[in-house]
Design a protein that fits this description.
Helix content: under 10%
Oligomer: single chain
Radius of gyration: 25 Å
Largest sheet: 4 strands, antiparallel
Distance between the termini: 93 Å
Structural class: mainly beta
Shape: globular
Number of strands: 28
């Protein structure tokens, strides 16, 4: 209306073009970081898109034997794909020749495989402008679905759907209206990105204070950050060393969340829940243009500090050995539930008896208690005691 009143009708298309370019610049979108209409990403062709600046890449990766295929985001220029987000972690692809990421007719992103009638993953939004959506990977690793004609309109973002990693700029908290927390869930093991046993989420206490909790199997809380005191979370004093990270806490009537940023944009960082039950804050201190891509990640802090404090880390009947390369083992007379799982440092299956108990046979006298030093009783030791008493009466 303003342009028309000023008598510049002939320049309106040009001004509209300039406005769109300006808005796209605000979102840091260009041809390389955008999924084009009619040109899906293919798993077999190793297609990908890169974020502006080249720090992140979206594409397909494989894990396991036989190989399973996933759509994910990772740090692009580092040795050993450091995955930060997985779209289809609960529903892996098997056929790379027909696996692809594309737009559906209703404007959503969909992950398809020819052998299946249903998408393996989708943004699953309603009432989208089907001919106008556009997906892009932003400079901070956030995959977004926007309105191509109005890039400031954001329909969906991967930061709202984290998997096991929390990147700088992401918000990890809880929607008070729906009481739905954004939860980080560990990989099952180093080769399997499907949801594991350990998760991190924000808990709002009855007195209104907030703290993050680590939970085993979505049921047993085994560690807490403590509440926010205005400077740091009580159990993470490292947060006061504010030379790398800038932490911020926000709370209003609609939501409560933490976010963090980096003072030095050349540093790469992430916070994650490991498959061994720790929350870890990691940094990679070389710049993204450096040739030192094989440099290790620096552990800024990790909690629980002692892995022995991770609930059920070694599984049923497993024994934890501190300060050893092989942290979990089986007691005498037991063997690992799965050699393949333990090879991947996954002891969730614990240990099994090599031979069944003989105590129910009155003539058998072979069952004995094994003495193991420095053992801590489990949290629910009374339940274990009652169960043992029902099964066997050993004198």
């Amino acid at each position: 209306m303003l342009v028309r009143d000023m008598g510049f009708d002939g320049t309106r298309p040009f001004l509209l073009f300039v406005l769109i370019v300006f808005l796209r610049a605000c979102f840091s979108i260009n041809a390389d970081d955008t999924l084009s209409k009619g040109q899906p990403l293919s798993a077999i062709n190793t297609d990908s898109i890169s974020s502006n600046g080249g720090k992140f890449e979206l594409g397909f990766f494989q894990r396991g034997t036989p190989p399973k295929y996933y759509l994910g985001i990772w740090f692009k220029r580092l040795v050993g794909q450091r995955i930060v987000w997985v779209a289809n972690r609960e529903n892996h692809l098997s056929d790379p020749y027909t696996s692809r990421l594309e737009y559906s007719e209703d404007g959503n992103l969909v992950l398809l495989e020819a052998s299946s009638k249903k998408p393996f993953w989708s943004t699953s939004l309603q009432n989208l402008p089907s001919n106008s959506t556009e997906a892009a990977l932003l400079y901070d690793g956030n995959l977004v679905l926007i309105d191509r004609s109005d890039p400031s309109t954001l329909f969906w973002e991967s930061f709202d759907h984290p998997t096991y990693t929390w990147l700088p700029g992401g918000e990890l908290g809880i929607d008070k209206a729906g009481k739905v927390p954004k939860r980080l869930i560990s990989w099952k093991n180093s080769e399997d990105p499907s949801p594991g046993l350990f998760s991190l989420s924000l808990r709002i206490n009855p007195n209104g204070s907030s703290e993050y909790i680590l939970v085993w199997n979505r049921s047993q809380v085994y560690w807490s950050t403590g509440v926010w005191n205005g400077n740091n979370l009580a159990s993470i004093p490292e947060m006061r060393r504010n030379y790398i990270y800038n932490y911020n806490f926000y709370s209003n009537e609609n939501e409560t969340y933490f976010t963090y940023s980096l003072y030095n944009a050349s540093i790469m960082a992430m916070c994650l829940v490991s498959s061994t039950g720790q929350i870890q804050q990691l940094s990679w201190l070389s710049s993204v243009e450096s040739d030192e891509s094989d440099q290790p990640w620096f552990l800024f802090w990790g909690q629980p500090k002692f892995r022995s404090d991770v609930y059920a880390l070694c599984g049923p009947f497993g024994i934890y050995h501190d300060n050893t390369i092989k942290s979990c083992d089986c007691p005498k007379g037991f063997e690992p539930f799965s050699d393949n799982q333990t090879r991947l440092n996954d002891w969730s299956g614990g240990c099994l008896r090599r031979h069944p108990l003989q105590c129910e046979n009155r003539n058998a006298k072979n069952d004995l208690f094994q003495k193991i030093p420095n053992i801590t009783l489990p949290n629910n030791w009374k339940a274990y005691s009652a169960m043992s008493a029902r099964r066997c009466k050993l004198v």
